[in-house]
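Translate sequence into structure tokens.
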Amino acid sequence: MARPARYPVRVKRVYEPAGPEDGLRLLVDGVWPRGQRKDMLELEAWLRIIAPSTALRRWFGHDPARWDEFRARYFAELAANTEGLSRLRGYLVRGPVTLLYAAADEEHNNAVALRDYILQGSG
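Result follows.
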């Protein structure tokens, strides 16, 4: 297991304005957020490669009752995603990171799960 991130890892809805504390802003959804233009998001990168698979995203459907199982399945996908984790690590060593997501649920979304994965030292 890798060491936890040494810089802060924050989570923020993509619809919230960028702030100076955001650091590197990474969109971690597999689908582009509705109504957002690329030039307005102040993104460092769109890391589609680290997003949950389409099948897992559809199965979850942002149902809080499926949250624990979603996390377990997503963590398994992440553990097998060496290319995606390598790209993510390249950003995590550069400074604070904000993981951006589009979901309305601020507690049950892939960015929260990804942050937890990183902070437990798996990322």
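Note: The beta strands are 9-13, 24-27, 45-46, 97-101.
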